[in-house]
Amino acid sequence: MKIMVVEDDRILAREIEGFLRKWGYETLVAGDFRRIAEEFACWRPQLVLMDVNLPFYDGFYWCGKIRQVSEAPILFISSRSDDYDKIMAIAQGGDDYVEKPFRLELLKAKVEAILRRTYQYKVKEQVFLGQGLFFDQGQLALYQNGEEILLTKLERRVMARLAADRPDVVSREELMMDLWDTEEYVSDGTLTTVISRLRSKLKNACGSEVIRTKKGQGYSLS
Asked: Deepest in the core among 16, 109, 161, 203, taking most CB within 10 A?
């Protein structure tokens, strides 16, 4: 999911960018406030965070321009608290409105709610593991801050099963059954090696243990 941040307060814009990237979103901060529509068309984000007070043209203007070419949701972020501005935001095609100052956790909740409504099937496929790390169940791919972490076929199978059952424990026997469906020869030692490699890749990516071992039972994603 790509999110475009249109905010002329550079400190706030970078803070939002860093926070969203930790949760696995690709984030672009607008650079030229004369060419917001062009940057949008070039990057084609799935969501826009739009300030109202901007240089040259306000956020309402750019919302209208974007609505001429796209139905991507637009979430206004503004220090204006007047009801007129909120009505104007909706009238121009905005989907929601957050007043400054706001907690980043509230912004994240708003973002997730909009994405869930608009791209429900895509949001369901992504399992967020923290620190910008997520597993895309549709693509069977692991990403860290938008960059793919290469996995083998067997590692993908194990991640897919653990992600599907999260937070429940998956036994070694169940994982072996999943791996036997591949064309590769799989032994008990093979599973141990796959888990070890996968655990190492995940820890290197986010700095913490993502796969947990339940002694005598199996494995789960934290």
From this structure: 16
pTM of the model: 0.56
Residue 48 · residue 66 · CB < 8 Å: yes
- Where among 118, 137, 154 does a domain terminate? 118
Residue (of 30, 51, 33, 53) closest to 42 by Cα position: 30
Residue 1 · residue 119 · CB < 8 Å: yes
Say whether both 135 and 205 belong to one domain. yes
pLDDT tier for residue 122 given thresholds of 50, 70 and 90: very low
**Boundaries of domain holding 201:** 125-221
Mean predicted confidence (pLDDT) in 17-33 = 88
